[in-house]
Write a structure and sequence with these properties.
The Tol-Pal system is composed of five core proteins: the inner membrane proteins TolA, TolQ and TolR, the periplasmic protein TolB and the outer membrane protein Pal. They form a network linking the inner and outer membranes and the peptidoglycan layer. With 188 residues, this protein is α+β, with helices and mostly antiparallel strands. It is built from six helices and six strands, in the order αββααβαβαβαβ. The chain folds into two domains: 59 residues, no CATH class; 121 residues, OmpA-like domain (60s Ribosomal Protein L30, Chain: A). Strand 1 and strand 2 form a beta hairpin.
């Protein structure tokens, strides 16, 4: 038997076992309270991403959350008409609630991701997705949000939520998602 046919599986097995042996076991997320009443999170043993997510969830804020705007803050998607970056009247209350929360929570950060349906070229859709994200960003800034809290990004047609090829699917995909990256609203 030829030695090169034995070497490749041996190297692959060594890499797999070495990688598994160096992984940390799953860590438990524990929380506690400080004397001033704020919540602390132990992220010992967590990966960097998992630690950031645990801190963000523990750092959720109820400041700026009212009974009146709670339902609007729960909505994290704004939809658009075909080939448009104009905000609809239905979305103003949602965006106003997010603006109010962001103004009250200066440590909150949001990524505004613009999306389009599958029709049109990749380049056109990337530009349209950016116009949509910038329209939401502009509304939030006009309503008092610090621009440093916002990041507008376009995914164009690359990340559909509905992979159908009809008007209902396209309508769902024409959107901007409001993704809290730090200090999301506490909606309990």
């Amino acid at each position: 038997m030829n030695i090169k046919y034995l070497t490749l599986p041996l190297i692959a097995a060594t890499l797999v076992f070495t990688g598994c042996a160096s992984r940390k076991p799953a860590a438990e997320i524990t929380t506690g309270n400080t004397p001033n009443g704020s919540t602390t999170v132990s992220t010992e043993g967590l990966s960097e991403d998992a630690a950031l997510n645990a801190q963000n969830l523990a750092g959720a804020s109820s400041k700026g959350v009212t009974a009146a705007n709670k339902a609007f803050l729960a909505k994290r998607v704004v939809h658009f008409d075909y080939d448009s970056s104009d905000l609809s009247n239905e979305d103003y209350q949602t965006l106003q609630a997010h603006a109010q929360f962001l103004v009250a929570n200066a440590n909150s950060k949001v990524a505004l991701t613009g999306h389009t349906d599958e029709r049109g070229t990749r380049e056109y859709n990337m530009a349209l997705g950016e116009r949509r994200a910038k329209a939401v960003e502009s509304f939030l800034i006009t309503n008092g949000v610090n621009p440093q809290q916002l990041e507008a990004v376009s995914y164009g047609k690359e990340a559909p939520v509905n992979t159908g090829h009809n008007e209902a699917a396209w309508k769902e995909n024409r959107r901007v998602e409001i993704n809290y990256e730090a200090v999301p609203p506490l909606l309990k």
